Amino acid sequence: MSANLYQDHLTTRKNQEAQAVQLLVELNTLANKGVDVLFFGNRIALNLVDIIAHHDKNALNIADTLAFATALNDQNLSHTTVDLGQALKSGKQAGSFTSGDEVPATDVVLYGFGRIGRILARLLMSRPASDKGLQLKAIVVRPAGEADLEKRASLLERDSVHGWFDGSVVVDKANSGIIANGRFIKVIYASDPSEIDYTSYGIDNALIIDNTGKWKDEAGLGKHLQSKGAKKVLLTAPASGDIKNIVYNVNDDTIGSDTIVSAASCTTNAITPTLKLLNDKYGIENGHMETIHAFTNDQNLVDNHHKAERRGRAATLNMVMTSTGAAKAVSKAIPELKGKLSGSSVRVPTPNVSLAILNLNFKNPVNSSDELNAFIKEASQSEQWQAQIAYSDSDEAVSTDFVGCEKVAIWDAKSTLAQDNRAVMYLWYDNEMGYSTQVLRVAETMAKNA
User: Fold this and answer.
1) Is 0.85 topped by the overall pTM?
2) Of 125, 138, 140, 266, which is the active-site residue?
3) Is-catalytic flag, 266?
4) Residue 339: alpha-carbon gap to chain centroid
5) Structure confidence by residue, pLDDT tens digits, 120-145
6) Is the dihedral of CA 301, 304, 307, 313 positive or negative?
């Protein structure tokens, strides 16, 4: 690199950093007014590196975003969502946005603090502090021994898959709680929901997010509603019976005033948005879904007795064939696909990020892989689907590239095979992070439907 070219790059970077500093001020002002700012469906981390990276990736000028954000602040907007990337891309004016209704605070309790519970806590605590919207007030765990509080806090702060928590985690032993990014989270010890009076902890009309998977029907999950201070229940697993299995942006409009709702499974969330797109465009005759799934906590680390077939064999040493209800569960979100899809699963020795393979027959011809890829790429860049679906056309993409991805599925364009009326398609998904973002979207919808 010549000296002049190096100097040009350095000057450009310095200008970007100076503009990003000014943009940070505008974004913080918007956040304090209750304006949820997105950038092509992604929440922007309020730091210089993230802001510059987002603009470079999408070939946008920070100066333009700064001018737009300043104009939004001049509008005195509050309680609304603005996607800056989409606004700039489509040529919208700041004056076209209006304030929304104030979002009331909703107390949230995480019942269970395993993989999904801790990811949900991280996501909630990483948002700008506010007294509106979802407010994480407590976690409920089974009674445990000494130093349990410190261990819970450490598991929130350190994660072997997702790394360190972006912020501070402090144990408040005197009040039996954890302070994360300045916000107090009460730790409640109980073996059953019937033991808990949430109002005694200053929690009322709470949304209980059950991450245990212990109860999946109305009788079991209804126990939560018998607890004083609990109002609604959201299950982070597929439900049985008449409980609605919700995939956000597909059938969340059916939640209504339901007090018990399921956010379905990680795999169901990963495949359903894409299946809806494909069905609407080409019409799905039938097909099969195979998930190559990261091992989970219900498998054994070493060979030992297990109530389920094959899952007793060492998870870190074997590919383990097992069942999945994801394909069947799709029909709860897309009724016209009932009976059209079969599904199976293979657990593999990786701790996170899975791969769904869709082998589908269509009513209408897809013609070629290029046509199918172009259709999904356009959808992934649309304001309607950008938060759920990402698009990858890299020859070098592997599973660890998608750790921490908040999109529910990433279309692998290089693997698409399509001809006539048949196609085989590959979807990556972070089965922890991507799913958890969908859970919170369902939670927000339930909170609004008071």
Assistant:
1) yes
2) 266
3) yes
4) 28
5) 999 999 888 888 899 999 999 998 88
6) positive
